[in-house]
Design goal:
The protein is mainly alpha-helical. The chain has a single domain, classed as Orthogonal Bundle (Non-ribosomal Peptide Synthetase Peptidyl Carrier Protein, Chain A). Helix content is 46%, strand content 0%. The chain has 3 helices and no strands. Helix 1 crosses helix 2 (41-55) and helix 1 (7-17) crosses helix 3. The chain is globular and about 30 Å long.
């Protein structure tokens, strides 16, 4: 059963996952641009898999065009789950 989806739970999952891709945890915030965090398309695909496993929400390839910040990822996951 997927975890409860709230902005806070999704942010916590992302904050826990991004250091696996070499991101400094102190740089992670809702306003942080994925590009500035050096999150590339492969990292985003892996993050998408983590979010799908955790929340049952699938991010598609075309979603990458809509996502530029950590907050964008959070908003997309929450909106798809609701």
């Amino acid at each position: 059963m997927p975890a409860t989806v709230t902005p806070d739970t999704v942010e916590a999952t992302i904050t826990e996952a991004l250091p696996q891709f070499g991101v400094d945890p102190s740089e992670i915030s809702c306003d942080a641009r994925l590009e500035d965090l050096d999150v590339d398309s492969l990292d985003l695909a892996e993050l998408s898999q983590i979010l799908e496993d955790e929340y049952g929400v699938q991010l598609k390839g075309e979603d990458a065009k809509k996502i530029s910040t950590v907050g964008d990822v959070i908003d997309l996951v929450v909106s798809r789950a609701g």
